[in-house]
């Protein structure tokens, strides 16, 4: 079944119908398809027709208008009078639907404060804007946020991230509703300046919204599933949270945010916890944030080495639940495209990264660790944490193409034992000094 929002037809998965003037027995008898009672206490009957589920509820004792007043927004408080053929619209829902506005029906809106986050995700999915009086009511509900279960909070953010198109509008609704204060990592980016040559769109918060819009577009182009879409959109919304910590303006008014990809990991982790995101999202998103700035090659020649690609593949750690290099490329694209018209773009190196990754992906041992414990023992290296720092060096050598199998790794260690152990001891001393 199709529904229409702001002139766009969307496939409706969740269809609820409220019926007046009939008893439960009459409703059950009138419904086609497979019918069953799913909420006897509340008078809900479920009918499945052609694979589509319809939940049909019987009203309580109040009038139709009172029942509509319990709905969250006017666009959801409309009905159909089958006898007269008229739309029942006591709160002007048709008007608000045409105007793309979210307006509460009554003070009953506050009975479920989660409706504020529902406004956010409806803004993101359909481009709706919150009217001032409803925004004011939302602000009055801000103190009860702490009482909401994390699972329900995640439900609204998941709908936004997996189904949204207008992510920047959702962030603006979160702001004007007063509920952005509950997500301080995001709120901290508002007003943080960016280099206007590279970011003419404005502050960091604006950029995150636009990057989210682009992430949603890319996800649909790539036909990602709901989980993949949500991952990419949330990565785009959080990828520059570190700029709130790392941005500086020098004596010549030049703006820079060096290292924001690193300082942004912990704020992103905190944000994901606040919205109740399952751990698998953290496993995918945090490595993307940490690595989203490494796409520009170092050095004057501007070349991307096989070693750089192998190292990135290893750091992303896709084999152990981390993101793929394709996931990384999509975030980098969303970041670049979310900078507004006129932004300085530079050279697009993503095709080279992807083509090299495809070629190197055929290497059977790429991303693995070829130096094994037996080789370390044969080299008379004391077992313990020292092994960790020897293995770190072996991974670098492996990514540089110095060997490609376990025998080669053992030979490399034998030939370079003294140098490798000395460096491992130095790293171990540094590690212990930091503890």
Automatic annotation (TrEMBL):
Report TM segments: none
What are the tRNA nucleotidyltransferase/poly(A) polymerase RNA and SrmB- binding domain coordinates in residue numbering? 127-187
A Pfam match is PolyA_pol_RNAbd
Q: Which parts form a coiled-coil structure per UniProt? A: none
Domain Poly A polymerase head: residue ranges: 63-103
Q: List UniProt keywords, sorted A-Z.
A: ATP-binding, Magnesium, Metal-binding, Nucleotide-binding, Nucleotidyltransferase, RNA repair, RNA-binding, Transferase, tRNA processing
Give the required cofactors: Mg(2+)
Which GO-annotated molecular functions does the record name? ATP binding; metal ion binding; nucleotidyltransferase activity; RNA binding
GO BP terms in the entry: RNA repair; tRNA processing
- Output the InterPro entries linked to this UniProt entry: NT_sf, PolA_pol_head_dom, PolyA_RNA-bd, tRNA_CCA-adding_enzyme
The record's section on PANTHER family has: MULTIFUNCTIONAL CCA PROTEIN (PTHR47545:SF1)
In the record, the note on similarity to other proteins reads: Belongs to the tRNA nucleotidyltransferase/poly(A) polymerase family.
**What is the protein name for this chain?**
tRNA nucleotidyltransferase
